[in-house]
Specification:
The chain is an alpha/beta fold. It folds into two domains: 326 residues, Type I PLP-dependent aspartate aminotransferase-like (Major domain) (Aspartate Aminotransferase, domain 2, 3-Layer(aba) Sandwich); 100 residues, Aspartate Aminotransferase, domain 1. The chain contains twelve helices and 13 strands. Strand 1 and strand 2 form a beta hairpin. The structure holds pyridoxal-5'-phosphate (PLP). InterPro entries: Aminotransferase_I/II_large (IPR004839), Class-I_PLP-dep_aminotransf (IPR050859), PyrdxlP-dep_Trfase (IPR015424), PyrdxlP-dep_Trfase_major (IPR015421). This is Kynurenine/2-aminoadipate aminotransferase.
């Protein structure tokens, strides 16, 4: 139960204080009774749990795309699958799996971390912001960044949290020196240093860029020197894309991929992972890896909001992972990487064919996005009517900036379109940009 996790020895964890809201949260009183459930022969007249014999499902059978069957007919599992999520930090077999998996991939160099299962990274982001930020605190955000996270910050900004952009450098990620400079400007201006920096480490949304390991270490060192916590949102970690047909033949290798968690000696990283981009977003399952007091704060806020990720999703995901084992998961991830890699290459090849001289871009090596910057276009929002008329839609770059100001870029998502549609969509974009370049501005009809 949540309370058991909180009593673990994670003292002296993250070098931060909780927000006013998180400090005021109390553990749910009802949940303090939960440990009595395991007393033999206890007569349970306490909780509002429906009994197992009223649940509708007697058996759940899933068939994977490879034709493997996953059958849940064990009464205990069927009960867990249909009951409330009684453990706020997450369904314990899944939590153990996630801990082993996190240890294997990131091997965090501090021993105080634990995981909380969430309803995906978006849910986790909102919970972490709430746990750490009080009016007057400063958060630094990569600019451009994921607009959903920025919109979660808007109500906090209205309550007095300061949201300060850190412009991405020419390599498409923030750089240690500019982060240090912004942190010091913040200190001079507000009298307090930033408390938290929000970063998307791999396959950044929207630029598609990943931070090299050396850059991660440099940024981590700046965060140490300035005593900033790091919120690492990394849903694209697994989507490492083979850059050529030859590279497709190699086995799964995530060892070369960097993460802040893997260098976190002093528990200042709160890492968000998600099943959304490598299993299915409809599961609504992610996990946070962090130390106390953030871990406890997330457990309490989970108890008092979602009560935990869906038991149904958690049990089914766990059964799938159990049945696949390590080999099946690696096979699935490698297949996904090949498929997305081909689409990324198709998007880049279409750009070579149709956008040469009209836009610049970097061939994506991770994630789902390609960031295109149009020549001679002040604000890509102005091109939207023309693009819609040509029947192609991309996201204007302004959507990703904190001030939503003019941007000459677009975000293209190559993951969901077919290779044929990528070719056609980029061709249509090229037609619009060519027209703009010939006439000197967007043509509204
Ligand atoms: C950077 C980033 N964080 C979080 C999310 C949402 O993740 P989840 O589906 O786990 O809530 C996305 C994309 O949808 C994203 O690009």
């Amino acid at each position: 139960m949540g309370d058991e996790i909180i009593s673990q020895d994670m003292n002296g964890g993250a070098p931060c204080t909780l927000s006013t809201v998180a400090s005021a949260r109390q553990p749910s009183q009802l949940r303090t009774l939960a440990p009595y459930l395991s007393i033999p022969e206890v007569v349970w007249l306490a909780g509002g749990l429906p009994p197992g014999d009223v649940f509708p499902f007697k058996k759940v059978t899933l068939t994977t795309t490879d034709g493997e069957e996953i059958v849940v007919d064990n009464p205990d599992l069927l009960y867990r699958l249909q009951q409330y999520t009684i453990e706020a930090p997450g369904y314990s077999p899944l939590r153990s799996w996630l801990k082993d998996h996190t240890r294997e991939l990131h091997n965090p160099p501090n021993s105080k971390w634990d995981v909380v299962v969430t309803c995906g990274n978006f849910d986790a982001t909102a919970k972490v912001f709430e746990a750490l930020l009080s009016p007057g605190d400063v958060i630094l955000v990569e600019d451009p960044s994921f607009p959903q996270s920025c919109s979660t910050l808007k109500p906090l900004a209205a309550s007095g949290v300061k949201v300060v952009p850190v412009t991405l450098g020419s390599h498409g990620h923030i750089e240690a020196e500019s982060l240090r400079a912004v942190a010091q400007e913040v200190k001079a201006r507000y009298g307090v240093g930033p408390k938290l920096v929000y970063v998307i480490t791999n396959g950044q949304n929207p630029t598609g860029t990943s931070m090299p390991k050396a850059v991660i270490q440099e940024i981590y060192d700046v965060c140490r020197a300035e005593n900033m916590m790091i919120l690492e949102d990394d849903p694209y970690f697994y989507l490492q894309l083979p850059g050529s047909e030859e590279a497709e033949g190699a086995g799964l290798d995530l060892g070369h991929v960097g993460s802040f968690l893997s260098v976190d000696t002093d528990c200042r990283v709160v890492r968000l992972d998600s099943f959304s981009k490598f299993l299915a977003p409809g599961l609504r399952i992610g996990w946070v890896t962090c130390a106390d007091p953030v871990h406890s704060a997330l457990v309490y806020s989970t108890q008092q909001t979602t009560q935990g990720a869906s038991s149904c999703s958690a049990v089914l995901a766990m059964e799938l992972l159990r049945q696949w084992g390590r080999t099946g998961l690696d096979r699935h991830l490698r297949r996904l990487q090949r498929q997305y890699g081909r689409k990324a290459r198709a998007a880049a090849a279409a750009a070579e064919r149709h956008l040469a001289g009209l836009a610049s871009w970097a061939a994506p090596s991770c994630g789902m996005f390609m960031w295109l910057t149009a020549e001679g276009v002040g604000d890509t929002r102005d091109l939207m009517p023309e693009l819609v008329e040509q029947k192609v839609v991309l996201v204007p770059g302004s959507f990703f900036y904190l001030d939503e100001g003019a941007s000459s870029s677009f975000r293209l998502c190559f993951a969901s379109a077919s290779e044929e549609d990528l070719e056609e969509g980029v061709r249509r974009l090229g037609n619009v940009l060519r027209k703009v370049s010939a006439t000197g501005g967007p043509q509204h009809t």
